[in-house]
């Protein structure tokens, strides 16, 4: 492994099959950095993170494989990226424990992602959930990653990882680079319900990369809309790379589903069509049935090659196992170097 290249780390929880939110929020950035020769890319199945929320053993097993297959199907390439399982590299847990000595409980309790998951699973507020951002900081710092391609929901965790790195470097003279949030467009894909974000663990919120045309049509048809006429308010303080608007129906109620629909239109058909639709929304009105049908078709066209590749990979069990075994080994080698350095600097070196 070259030392002059910048490093990239990202991962996806093994909690189901990938959806459009993962695709735009994480995968697109992961692919772009894989193609860029100045980076060494490490992409893991974040299977240990899966147990921070309630899970079934059989589902975890199936999801670990599903994420690997999805990674390969979207074009992550084992020749250019290290593809591995987080749980196969025990140094993630080891570093996480060392780093936890640098973080206050209050800081973790105030992270928005922690508050969201507490709302989603009030009966499951575990230590694993609370310390999940520390494990994520360990994931990143273990590979001394400079760039972290993730969706905007993970931004507070990148900030936490930067703080941990800064503190660790200043207290123990470690050499962690401060990791950066990386995203191209689509850093936040809203749920099909219009409430919250698209999430693997929220039923009815997502379109999977493996959905067929009929399923996509059905899911898009269910996005709640309005009469087709209303007002658009463009947000000047757009925080995303996508055009940012809010939609109000004829009664002045916010149409959150229309926003989801328009974001998907922009991503799959371009911003000029979204602008045309916005103009019609404020004049003659929109006919959602047609818009939805066209959109479903565009989504399926983008997903079809991924699905064809995935179908082939499903039959290549030996190849897929070999890819992960090799990736695990490469990740372990790099992780061991960092852990040795950290142990030395924290005072766990040899007696003499
Ligand atoms: P879960 O419900 O299990 O948390 P998830 O759908 O939120 O699943 P994660 O595995 O937590 O997916 O996240 C994987 C990556 O996908 C992260 O980089 C995350 O920021 C990104 N991501 C997840 N959902 C979205 C979304 N709706 N829009 C943009 N990015 C997203
Ligand atoms: Mg998530």
Question: Which key phrases capture this entry?
Answer:
single chain, 352 residues, mainly alpha, Rossmann fold, Tyrosyl-Transfer RNA Synthetase, 2 domains, 3-stranded parallel sheet, two-stranded parallel sheet, 7 strands, globular, binds adenosine-5'-triphosphate, binds magnesium ion
Shape: globular
Total E-strand runs: 7
Ligands, deduplicated: adenosine-5'-triphosphate, magnesium ion
Query: What is the CATH architecture assignment of the largest domain?
Result: 3-Layer(aba) Sandwich
Write down the overall mean pLDDT. Answer: 95
Topology-level CATH name of the largest domain: Rossmann fold
Order of helices and strands: EHEHEHHHHHEHEHEEHHHH
Strand content: 5-15%
Poorly predicted spans: none
How many structural domains?
A: 2
- Sheet of most strands: 3 strands, parallel
Q: In what order do the strands lie side by side in the largest sheet?
A: 1-2-3
Count of DSSP H/I helices? 13
Which CATH first-tier class of the largest domain would you pick? Answer: Alpha Beta
Measured distance between first and last alpha carbons = 31 Å
Helix content: 40-55%
The computed structural class is: mainly alpha
């Amino acid at each position: 492994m070259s030392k002059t290249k910048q490093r990239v780390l990202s991962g996806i929880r093994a909690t189901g099959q990938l959806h459009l939110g993962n695709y735009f929020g994480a995968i697109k950035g992961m692919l772009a950095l894989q193609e860029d020769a100045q980076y060494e890319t490490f992409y893991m199945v974040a299977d240990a993170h899966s147990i921070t929320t309630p899970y079934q053993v059989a589902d975890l097993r199936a999801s670990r494989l599903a994420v690997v297959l999805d990674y390969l199907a979207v074009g992550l390439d084992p020749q250019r990226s290290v593809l591995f399982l987080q749980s196969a590299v025990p140094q993630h847990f080891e570093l996480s424990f060392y780093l936890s000595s640098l973080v206050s409980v209050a800081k973790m309790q105030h992270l928005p992602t922690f508050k969201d998951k507490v709302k989603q699973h009030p009966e499951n507020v575990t230590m694993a959930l609370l310390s999940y951002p520390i494990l994520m900081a360990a994931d990143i710092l273990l590979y001394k990653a400079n760039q972290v391609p993730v969706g905007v929901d993970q931004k507070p965790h990148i900030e936490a990882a930067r703080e941990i790195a800064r503190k660790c470097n200043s207290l123990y003279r470690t050499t962690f680079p401060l990791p950066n949030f990386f995203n191209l467009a689509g850093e936040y894909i809203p749920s099909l319900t219009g409430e919250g974000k698209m999430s693997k663990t929220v039923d009815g919120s997502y379109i999977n990369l493996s959905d067929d045309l009929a399923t996509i049509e059905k899911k898009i048809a269910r996005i709640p809309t309005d009469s087709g006429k209303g007002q658009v308010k463009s947000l000047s303080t757009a925080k995303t790379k996508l055009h940012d608007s809010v939609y109000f129906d004829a009664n002045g109620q916010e149409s959150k589903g229309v926003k989801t629909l328009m974001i998907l239109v922009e991503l799959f058909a371009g911003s000029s069509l979204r602008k045309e639709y916005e103009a019609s929304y404020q004049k003659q009105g929109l006919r959602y049935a047609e818009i939805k049908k066209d959109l479903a078709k565009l989504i399926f066209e983008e997903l079809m090659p991924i699905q064809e590749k995935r179908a082939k990979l499903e039959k290549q069990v030996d190849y897929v196992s070999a890819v992960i075994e090799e990736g695990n080994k490469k990740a372990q080698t790099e992780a061991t170097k960092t852990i040795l350095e950290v142990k030395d600097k924290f005072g766990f070196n040899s007696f003499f």
